[in-house]
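User: Need the bound-state model for S-adenosylmethionine:
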Amino acid sequence: MNDSNWEWYSNHRDSQQSVGLDLLSLWTDDWENGEIVLDIGCGTGELTKMIAERDNVKSVIGVDISANAIEFASKNNSVDGKTQYLVGDAMLLPETLSHFEKAFTKVYCNEALHWMEDKQTVLRNACWCLKETGSFLFHIDRVKSPFYNVYHKSIDLPKWMKYLKDFQPKFCPFLRSLKDLQDMISRSGFKKYPRTIERYHYSFSADTKDKHIGFLRPLMTHLDLIPASLHEDFLEDCFQIFQRASTKTEDGVLHWSAEAFHVKVYK
Ligand SMILES: C[S@@+](CC[C@H](N)C(=O)[O-])C[C@H]1O[C@@H](n2cnc3c(N)ncnc32)[C@H](O)[C@@H]1O
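Assistant: Bound-state model below.
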């Protein structure tokens, strides 16, 4: 994620919001009074706030690696007495937030695991955070999403090589196979997990180039390595790649869709 403008992300995250709400809908059946929830990679906190507003939720902690995102979330998406936002790396929770051990009844993670390199450790840490019988609900992307193409192809464009040659890509989705996911879950300490995990298809549509670029800009972690005067030019190139991976309907709306998994596992 580009760390310099979280207000922009907050204003252009329709796609993440709709995926996050679909994910949350898997939790309606086992929601009890007094839930204590951890939102991993909470970003600007819109979904954290929605979780906090549920009557049966006692409190929610949103954790994110970005201090700027946490500052934005605290200012804009706090619910009195129910939310707390903390800076933390999901891969290092036992080392840095040791009071999280067995502290939560639910852990949630929307659209964030693909930014975390060591997913196995994040899953193990989510299990470590949960009380007995607690559950972890997460979204996990497949490697071959149109966004993956835009992100990686934009780094390799010869035109931008002089700025990006030393850049280490941060976007690292997972899932070569469903078995890989099941193995990773079972190695993380979860006792109950589905043997068949339903695929989740999500889509993004926009009728203007501005909306597409609005969505792409905060996700381009390498943007700040390019001089500000060339940002629009670079984003235009990203949009062109995006457009080639999309389908266009007669009304001029561009659509793309991708496959991911929504998974609920129990300790
Ligand atoms: C696309 S945003 C999703 C934010 C939010 N969950 C939503 O649905 O809008 C991904 C978030 O993961 C955070 N993130 C990336 N790596 C992380 C890590 N290792 N630990 C905690 N948060 C991380 C980013 O800073 C970013 O806020």
